[in-house]
Amino acid sequence: METDESDLPYIGAPARRALAVAGHTRLEQLTAVTEAELLALHGVGPKAVGILRDALAGRGLSFREG
What we know:
Oligomer: single chain
Helix content: 40-55%
Radius of gyration: 11 Å
Largest sheet: none
Protein name: DNA-binding protein
Number of strands: 0
Shape: globular
């Protein structure tokens, strides 16, 4: 059975909910989206994107270019 347990860093409830609604519950899933696409989600702001960018970089990953 596959688990959807999140490994996202703390970014605040509105941003976390917006990501979940968009289907992003794991950090690795964010490599398929651009920063602009995340910022377009209601509840996700520059601070949350910066935290996520740092978390991705810590794993040698990044957002999709675009």
